């Protein structure tokens, strides 16, 4: 996002980006607000958006995949609450779990 009305780079470089990426667009604050109404744009003048071959990351799918892959390598996941942390100096030795909640 650009915050200066006179950016060092801006719409003049869009041609280079477009020829290299084939999907980069420079959007005005108004265009960004129309497309992304949840953004706070008080100090934004323009922004660069890639409109081609962009995807979204589903964090929960990634976490699920990570857990499945680690379980394939014998990692156990325990669902419990840490009630204290045992230290030796500035080193953490072990967490103490609330056994009343049980292991998952």
TrEMBL record:
InterPro entries, per database record: FAD-dep_OxRdtase, FAD/NAD-bd_sf
Domain FAD dependent oxidoreductase span(s) in chain numbering: 23-92
Pfam families: DAO
Protein name: FAD dependent oxidoreductase domain-containing protein
Species whose genome carries this gene: Rhodococcus wratislaviensis NBRC 100605
């Amino acid at each position: 996002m650009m915050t200066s009305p006179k950016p060092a780079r801006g719409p003049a470089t869009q041609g280079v980006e477009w020829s290299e990426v084939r999907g980069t667009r420079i959007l005005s604050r108004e265009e960004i607000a129309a497309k992304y109404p949840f953004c706070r744009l008080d100090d934004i003048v323009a922004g660069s958006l890639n409109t081609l071959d962009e995807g979204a990351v589903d964090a929960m799918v990634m976490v699920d995949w990570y857990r499945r892959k680690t379980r394939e390598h014998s990692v156990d996941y325990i669902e419990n609450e840490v009630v204290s942390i045992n230290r030796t100096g500035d080193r953490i030795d072990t967490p103490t779990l609330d056994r009343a909640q049980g292991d998952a």
